[in-house]
Amino acid sequence: MYAWKFGYEFTYSEMWQAIALSLAKVGAFGGMAMFALSLILSGRYKFYEQLFGGLDKMYVAHRFLGTTSVFLLFLHPVALSLLVQESGFNQILKLWLGLTSLGVLLGVLALYSLIGLVIWSVFARYKYETFIKVHRFLGVAFILGALHAFMSGSILSTNPFMYTYMFTLSAAGVITFIIYSLLGDMLHQPLKYRLIEAKSLPNNITELILEPVSRIINYAPGQFVYIAFEGLDEHGYHPFSISSDKRSSKLKLAIRTTGDFTKQLDSLPRGTIANVKGPYGGFILRPSTRKQLWIAGGIGVTPFISGALSLEFTTRFKHGDIEMIYATNDNKAYGSELLQRIEETNDIFNVTLFPQDDFGYVSFSQLSEHIKDLEERDIYICGPPNMLNSLVKEAEKLGLQNQLKYEEFDY
User: Fold this and answer.
1) Which of 28, 144, 319, 397 is the most exposed place for a label (fewest CB within 10 A)?
2) CB-based contacts of 192, cutoff 8 Å, min separation 6
3) Looking at the whole model, is its pTM more than 0.85?
């Protein structure tokens, strides 16, 4: 679109040829622009959270840009094939095999690498660590595609605006890939923590307590960190919510055992060094003059524990009250006793265990029977995807969607 606006001249006389060329250029430059933006967002920089309203929302944009770029980039050679079809099948084959020039060969390698990675990520059964490592090859595919664009793009060679636009986006994407994926810890030094306790708890939960080696991470209740342990380097960084009191120098994480990495955590020796990055997340739990409703499900209780622990010395005279619903089938579920003790000592906090075996999944229609002022409350939700999606859909039907605050930690 920009190329046409700034004077690209079509040399084809037939309308269908102009349309095919237009689709080829939209696919090429639109796809590369979206691919570049997707790479730029993969940097996980803090200001992205403010821009998108949470790291999870940023990842939604990241995935949309990435998947849309694949479609557009595939459209590029399809449209070009229409333009050369009059020259015969051999010419089309040369195009798809990259035999016409070095620039075209680089583009073919980039496209096939990208398609292969997408197919693998959709159909392969992979570990989280493998996904992260393979995902880094997207940066290599982008570099090949960018070289192809600048070596083969007729618009880029004649249009200064398009050249500057694509060069800026491409450079930003490549720089982000190098700084974030290749250099990683070298340029973004993680904080060092030392493991002082690891214990196995019921319901396949491991609780880790770490102390800082030097600097203390400055987080707000509700946020999460990326953490990697020395000795488990092959597993890389994993995201976990913080469940400790903000006033404590120690870092407490409650982690459900779900895979090879989490199965090894309760056997880590005391003194193991952990590399911690963060904090991340816009799911901030703070008392305010507005009333709040906290809804937790399963291990999604961890950010609420941090929030409840940080309520000490706050009173109803200064802040609105907080009602918490903990959806669980276990009266001794993780954190339930601690939350009940906090309730006894804090006059703005009230927690209710919601037995799903007896009442089914938690819903706003059920809660409205006991909490008459739902419309006056900010509503925070953290739990399994099914529970979260169900509550979000119900909130939209009831007109409560503007009161919801949540993050999808499934990324």
Assistant:
1) 397
2) 212, 213, 214, 273, 274, 275, 276
3) no
